[in-house]
Amino acid sequence: MSAGAGQPSKRWSLRGNDDEGNEVWLIRSFGQKLYRCPGCHGDIPIGSEHTVVQYVLRLGGTEHHHWHRRCAEEWLIPDLRELKKVPASQSQRGKLEERGKRPAGRRRR
Ligand SMILES: [Zn+2]
After folding, report:
1. How far is CA 15 from the centre of its chain?
2. What is the largest CA-CA distance in the chain?
């Protein structure tokens, strides 16, 4: 796993970049409905701890997916660049959607 940043937790989220220059935020979450993990295509049971993967796209806009923690760790995190811990307060969905309204070059770091 890159940089040993670990898993998202209550206090910390993770932020990295994918090959296409999109920001990828990994956020700890608990499901309020049933989700399907894009890694293994298995169910994520209601109420179980999992990882929300929120993309803030290079050209603007956001999208997110719900992953099992272990699947994100095995299949997603190894492909991310410059992965680092950021305070979970920075990764609230509203803030990321706001961030997605600007193309990458015009975002504050
Ligand atoms: Zn999975």
Report:
1. 7
2. 38
The reported pLDDT for the residue numbered 105 is 84
* Per-residue tokens: 17: 């970049």
Give 93 Cα–ligand 1 centroid separation in angstroms: 22
Q: What is the pLDDT of residues 16-34, one digit of tens each?
A: 999 999 999 999 999 889 9
C-alpha 71 – ligand 1 centre gap (Å): 5
Using the mean position of ligand 1's atoms as its centre, give its distance from the Cα of residue 35 in Å.
Answer: 10
Task: Give percent of the chain above pLDDT 90.
Answer: 85
pTM of the model: 0.91
Angle (nearest 5°) at CA 56 between 64 and 34: 5
Report d(CA 78, CA 76) in Å as an integer.
Answer: 6
